[in-house]
Amino acid sequence: MTLKEVFDQKSVTTVIGTMDAQSTNTVEKNGFNAAYFNGYDVVRAQLGATNEGLISPSELSAELRHVKEHGNFPVIVDAQSGFGNQLTTYYVVQDLERSGAAGIVLNDQIFPAHTAQNEVTMIEFSDFVAKLKAGRAAFDDEETMLFAELDGVQEYGADGLRKRIQYIQQNQLADFVLVGHVTPDQFAAVADMTKNESFGLVVNTVRDQFASAEDLADQGFSALFYTGVLSAARQSAEEQAAQQFLTKAEV
Amino acid sequence: MNKAARMRKAFKDMCFSGDLVNMVVAPNALSAKIAEKTGFKAIFQAGYATSADRLAQPDRGIADFGLMSDSAREIINAVNIPVFIDADTGYGDEQNIERLVHVYENMGAAGLFIEDQTWPKRCGHMDGKTIISEEAMVSKIQAAVNARQHDDFLIMSRTDAYAVTGLQSAIDRSRHYHEAGADLVFVEAPKTKDDLQKVADSFPDVPVMANMIENGKTPLLSNEEIHEMGFTIAIHPNVLVYTTTYSTEKLLRDMVELGTTERQIDKMVTFPQFNHFIGLDDVNALEEKFATAPIEL
């Protein structure tokens, strides 16, 4: 199934964040139709850190190529803020698509993008539009999907978010709009927007505390991108296993 | 003392000896090895050559940290002389700089420079450069200095302010970068000999680097002239890229036209010469050393 077919077939598409071949295989084997290879999970697994902006795009694409050795399972890749300006966005997206990305997410943060809520700064919307155009122009395959992620509702407010979504959709700058970095105080306003606009929600399960996927789907979000689920689970499982082994060894 | 420590110490001793540290930029491990074998005591790994060698792209911020550090690792592992690193703008903010200092220090680099251009950067001798605020750059230098694990891992400041706000601004910035902890100073692309002299005169007690690019913005001077002016570090960043491009193009045109390399053969090393140079004898000897010996139990 192609990525476009995945998004066309369901009213709500849920995508789980992955960080390497093992986690992507886990997502595929457990019935999901696509994975979200994203900066946060990759940085946690590869660098042992939690700031997605620490990874460089060539490191991301090298890991992606390992993921894609295992088949054609659709992988959406987090190209963050394009790792610079429109020029870097063009080359980064080109490299990620060549490395096997079926979809690319670009966000409207200043480079380097950050995961922590208090470290996020936004670029001008005109610059984001230019990056989306550069990203789209870099695609070789017309089936590759472009996702525009708007991370600045804290800065430009619900009205600013609505206008940006409408502009992107009316001008067909992306195949899909995602909203990220939504804080609890903004959540109701963002959820209310789903009555008129079609967009997905990015949830970092370590940072964000929202309702279950079922409840979020009921709110009207048309896609749910979860990050942090598997990297946090892996860390927890590793700690448990190491602790158990230590206890046995001591005995 | 491990190799990384030996290289850091050797490079620091060179930089503060008062003699000229003469470095060529190596685009790859092979050219680094040639530089070492022909007598260079230290080499440089830099963006223009790496972008050309690894991506066949101009130095416009397309080569990122992952690619640059991969190339640096290959070069460092190929030689036994200090390798100094062009870390561009640090590829992000202070957190990125902290990471890159750890990575380069761990792989055995002798030190690195960080520049005050905005990202994506341009080669220092290209037009259209823009720079970040002095305060932002001071913060980056401090981040690099605080991140290093060894004091002899040298941090150089590079300013591109000459092209944007003029000579005095470039000197003032460099002074503040030095006060923030930069061990070495580099003012990129002065356009006249007088301006080069003013840069050298402004830092009598700090090792200062001069960048000699053929057909660049700065007048091309000999190592002797540079040293007499007061510079103690010289780099030749593009000469190997230009020479390789020139000779490769000439050879390949001949091959297309004549269908043979016969006319160029006297400009090549021979098969045995190259095998000897690249260390085939050493590799064969190593294998022989660990050859399986019969064991009776």
UniProtKB/TrEMBL annotation, chain A:
<protein>
    <submittedName>
        <fullName>2,3-dimethylmalate lyase</fullName>
        <ecNumber>4.1.3.32</ecNumber>
    </submittedName>
</protein>
<dbReference type="GO" id="GO:0047529">
    <property type="term" value="F:2,3-dimethylmalate lyase activity"/>
</dbReference>
<dbReference type="Pfam" id="PF13714">
    <property type="entry name" value="PEP_mutase"/>
</dbReference>
<dbReference type="InterPro" id="IPR040442">
    <property type="entry name" value="Pyrv_kinase-like_dom_sf"/>
</dbReference>
<keyword id="KW-0456">Lyase</keyword>
<dbReference type="InterPro" id="IPR015813">
    <property type="entry name" value="Pyrv/PenolPyrv_kinase-like_dom"/>
</dbReference>
UniProtKB/TrEMBL annotation, chain B:
<dbReference type="GO" id="GO:0047529">
    <property type="term" value="F:2,3-dimethylmalate lyase activity"/>
</dbReference>
<dbReference type="InterPro" id="IPR039556">
    <property type="entry name" value="ICL/PEPM"/>
</dbReference>
<dbReference type="InterPro" id="IPR015813">
    <property type="entry name" value="Pyrv/PenolPyrv_kinase-like_dom"/>
</dbReference>
<dbReference type="Pfam" id="PF13714">
    <property type="entry name" value="PEP_mutase"/>
</dbReference>
<dbReference type="InterPro" id="IPR040442">
    <property type="entry name" value="Pyrv_kinase-like_dom_sf"/>
</dbReference>
<dbReference type="InterPro" id="IPR018523">
    <property type="entry name" value="Isocitrate_lyase_ph_CS"/>
</dbReference>
<protein>
    <submittedName>
        <fullName>2,3-dimethylmalate lyase</fullName>
        <ecNumber>4.1.3.32</ecNumber>
    </submittedName>
</protein>
<keyword id="KW-0456">Lyase</keyword>
